[in-house]
Records
---
Amino acid sequence: MSQSGIFRALRHREYRLLFSGFVVNQTGFWISHISLQGLMVKLSNNDPFQVGLLFSSLLLPALVLAPVAGVAADRFNRKNILILCYLSVAALAALLAGIAATGAAVSALLALGFAMGATFAFAGPASNAIAANAVDTDDLSSAVALQSAANNLTRVVGPLLAAPLVATGRFAVAFGFFSAAALTSAGLVSRMRVGAAPLDVHPGGVIARIRSGFAHARERPPALAALATAGGLSIFGVAHIAMLPVYAEEVLGRTELFAWIVATTAFGAMIGALVTGRDARPTLMKAALRLVAYGVALGVFASTHSIAVAFAAQLVVGYCYFAVMTGLQTLLQQLVDDSNRGRVMSLFQVAWGGLTPIGSLTLGAAARFVGVATALQGAALGCLAVGVVMALRARTRDRWA
């Protein structure tokens, strides 16, 4: 296999096991996630605030728990943390399947969504860190890109598989599949043989360790700027995904199109992740320019009533979304020491997922008053502003910028 090939990380047995478990789990997640959105749409009569609240319940735990999870990933066995999280997800998905079969309530969906979000928050730093432990340094960009691409491939496959289940109201089947997928992933990860990561010997408690991770990021420029760029995209851009069911009904006049919009976004994102993964030297400037392009595409998406134009714009949105995030994640992985990897990547998780609930709740509330199209146009302007600011900053910094 070519040393520069995008698939070079698959040469490593431990990464193949991790990657296989990731693909299986993410496929189950997206089938479950689309079904969860569909069930909330049904129970809430497509209330944009309730739909945004569900989205936030899944991601809000990352804002609070990811820094603690990062400390755990640097202090304890990363493999065991990941297995425990997969098993917890399997149990929660099984419970969700039972509730869906016997009669679900909005409050139950929100509570279980929050519990799942907590397990995702703890799994994230350990998963990111162990991926770096499973490959050589030269193959790190390939490992990050492949996981990003797989995430988006499952975002295509998952909605396609979920669509008939949502259309026929078989939500319990979708949640049951996610439970089985998580169990399978736990089994695959349990077969990994990875060496222990350097033990965090920082004195003090959890808060002191979190601060040390932040200090480490500050000492590795442009790590903080990369985290800020990811946070800006999450608040203004990623949050729009929560509004897709409302957008499909209010703007395009066909609610059922939202699953296909998600699949289109994921297809573009998969291409973005693969293209970015071939770049061994990601920079802040590249990420900032892609964020500007994201804002332009989102503005087009928010302003059109044409189904064809909306899908084309969302394809570009997806491409830029994961091109930005994959580049930033690879940049951070290259900058940090392994002893601090879990904590720094937990900050990335906060920036990516933890800040998204702020945007989704704000966007959902705004959509109630000004309409979803106008709210999305405001989000597009926010992405443009962050991209321009970071591009200007990158011009004055070192070669990593």
---
Amino acid sequence: MDITEPSLIGFTIYSKSGCSNCTKVKNMLKTSNLSFNVVDCDEYILENKEFFLSFMEKKIGHSYRFFPIVFHDNKFIGGFSETSEYVEKILLSFEDNF
């Protein structure tokens, strides 16, 4: 099974169906005009959940079993609350530069 790698540029959201925080992250990035790719993980979880979790553990550096799983420029950010704080800092740095 090939799992989609996080993008080198922009946000990558690993998402699953029925995940309210996944929807919140996508909406927040959309309203902030930040680019992102969504990777639907339903199939990964159904086919081989342990392989998917192992892939994420290697990418992240530790076990992580929550959705969404968000990366920015191939760097792990976290879930909804961590991404929200991260985006707030990005937007503030944009404002400081203008």
---
Amino acid sequence: MHELSIALSLLDLAAEEAARRGGARIVAIHLKLGPLAGVVKEALAAAFDLARTGSALADSELVIAEVPVTAYCPCCAAERTVVSVQQLCCSACGTPTPRILQGRELEVVALEIES
């Protein structure tokens, strides 16, 4: 399960930042996650809970914001959500949309830190 290695990496990143700030407490790690990232949200949350147990970040929280898959629709000439991950078509007109704009994210966007 690669979600555990991702959770451990998130904790390492947060611990490094806490150390850089003189031992500040990490309250939360905020993450953007797209369905095309290849990570299962629930598995990552469970792995994070497991990985933080007994660590210096045992009280920290993982906040996951899900990002929809959007693509550029050449027919509508606009950014649109897709019908589904399996069917990359414009949700407005049904045109196939090969140019994916978002939905691959696995990105730390913020750390909530208490001094």
---
Amino acid sequence: MKIAITAKGKDINSEVDPRFGRAAYILIVDTETSEVETLDNQENVNRLKGSGIQAAAMIHNSGADVLLTGYCGPNAVKTLKAAKIKIAAEVSGSVQEAISLFRANKYSFIEEANVEGHWI
């Protein structure tokens, strides 16, 4: 299984980025092989709107089944649910800690946004 984790840096020792669409990076971790792929999300960081939808499309294209993040807005949730990607929100700490907690089934999945959409 592949999981996507929003991150402030490029490796698993980085802190989880609480922002979904505007996270600096998204790490894709294969839970079977522990292989890590780093997706650069810089294009979406300063996007006027639609960053969550674009980040959701990147995650879908990576083949991830689950997203671990801090906060996820309504349009991103709608897009991720359409792609059948489960969302665990309010994730914090390091990416490595988040992976460990995921493997221990410590997260529950959300069905609704846990933050309002961002309109600039």
